[in-house]
Amino acid sequence: MTNTDPKGHIRDVDRYEETRSGLYLARPTPGRPQFHYIESWLLPELNLRITDFHFNPGHEFQDFYLDVVDIERSGAVWRSTDLYLDLTLYHHDRIEVLDVDELLAAVPAGHISAEKAESVLRTGFATVQGIAANGYDLETWLAALNITLSWRRWPQPGR
């Protein structure tokens, strides 16, 4: 019942749930002034990690944050590797692509191959196209792919 972030910090998790679509986790985010709780889904079929940040008053931002990731599973252990490219979905209004510069800089630095970077861009732009074509509604796009995610399924700390 822990989550190890990219910096090696181990965080307690309130809930994990595995479904045919992927892995759900929910956990508090102590010490973060912007938000107090996150819910994330790892979706191997889409190479995405989708996160809903529960923002503190005055820090509201995007509806969902999407990371393009590689996902590996070994028994009960799931591992995601961030592949630099991120997307932010805002209030059924727009989606923004972030960190293209980081992805492109990672290729000559030897952190990622040109082929992998191309795959990441294809994933990112297919995601943008799919969400935009569905009125910037994440759930509608996922439903068209026969993926149903659930969020906030029990009382959370601080609520």
Structural account:
With 159 residues, this protein is an alpha+beta fold. The protein contains 3 helices and 9 strands. The protein has helices at residues 100-106, 114-133, 138-144; strands spanning 2-4, 10-12, 15-18, 23-28, 35-43, 48-55, 64-74, 77-90, 94-98. The strands form 2 sheets. Strands 3-4-5-6-7-8-9 form a 7-stranded antiparallel β-sheet. The protein has a two-stranded antiparallel sheet with strand order 1-2. Strand 4 (23-28) and strand 5 (35-43) form a beta hairpin. The two termini are 21 Å apart.
Radius of gyration equals 16 Å
Portion of residues within helices: 10-25%
Assembly state of the chains shown:
single chain
- Distance between the amino and carboxyl termini: 21 Å
The number of distinct β-strands equals 9
Q: Would you list the SSEs in sequence order as H and E?
A: EEEEEEEEEHHH
CA-based shape: globular
Strand order of the largest sheet: 3-4-5-6-7-8-9
Number of helices: 3
Summarize the structure.
The protein contains three helices and nine strands, in the order E-E-E-E-E-E-E-E-E-H-H-H. With 159 residues, the chain is an alpha+beta fold. The model is unreliable at 154-159 (pLDDT under 50).
